[in-house]
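Bug #77: duplicate submission created two jobs. Keeping one. Sequence:
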Amino acid sequence: MAVAHTELSNIDNRQILSALDDWLNDIKPLVKHFDHNDEYPSEIVLQMKELGLFCLMYPVEYGGMGMNASSYAKVITRLSETWMSLAGIINTHMMLGQLILRFGTDEQKKQFLGRLARAELHGVLCLTEPDAGTDLQGIKTTAVSDGNDYIINGSKMWITNGLHGSLYALLTKTNPRANPAHKGMTMFLAERGEGFNVDGKISKLGYRGLESVALSFDDYRISRDRILGGEEGFGFKHAVGGLELGRINVAARGVGLAKAALDHAVDYSKIRTTFGKPICEHQSIQIKLADMATRVEAARLLVEQAAEKYDKGERCDMEAGMAKLFASEAALENSTESMRVHGGYGYSKEYEVERFFRDSPLLCIGEGTNEIQKILIAKQTIERSKLG
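Kept job's structure:
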């Protein structure tokens, strides 16, 4: 199916959202098929490329749209209102572009940013391992210097877009004995090659259609000039810098899911009748809807705050953490409450609500668990009180 919409690169942000909404209306009827069958939506991805969704945050000079994080978050929210997996398809791609833009050498920017903006390459992040998720300093994948190359051995887990991606930000340890550990970590810009193995797709409760895979590296050889930024020892800094945008993205997804759960609950409450009147007229349902609506707006404002600080180049790990924490919990609570409003029908695969219920828990885990977010928020609160 050809895309019959104006390319996003030629219009302003309000028009972008309007064109995006038109396209999403065409996509909605297809979502159940891909979600229920856990099938990669290849044709939809092609449309996303034609529409310009792969170049949103890439600089204009490299063929991108130059969109800031505040506008990008709104796009992610819209996508997630329809199907959260669509947001995941472009999120790692956007995060990799930001990593190269912020930390890459001039040669790396020249070599990769244009190709990424044109969607000739699909960007992926390879951080998490079987025994290291939120604690990135615990990774075990090693990169050993060998002349002008490095030899990489190890494994990665839960890699989004790992099967369909083509350029990977690969976090390794170049000095496993470094103390503190983060000083011995290095990020590489890796492409597929001998010793780079995709070991299998992980079957998941939700976030389906978009693959999460396990990767392994067996004497995988990569050139020294593929070190992000050109120097060893900055991989942890690069990963943490990328996670700020990642957490804003997860928070924006939470807003989208929370909003979709609310909208479906409101619509259903208007047509479902009990005791002679629509259930939206029952006080118990009204209380649920009020709480759901409040969560959506509070989450949206927290996302806007974090994105604005990111766009100003200010430190925003606390704000991104707050947005991620609150919005993901809002999505989980709203999905549960929406299912309760729907009653037995909410438990049926004929309704969208059961998908929201399956997708939302991931947001509380991904990009750093919510328990970790609380610790980071508390530490920053204490630190900032000293400065004040």
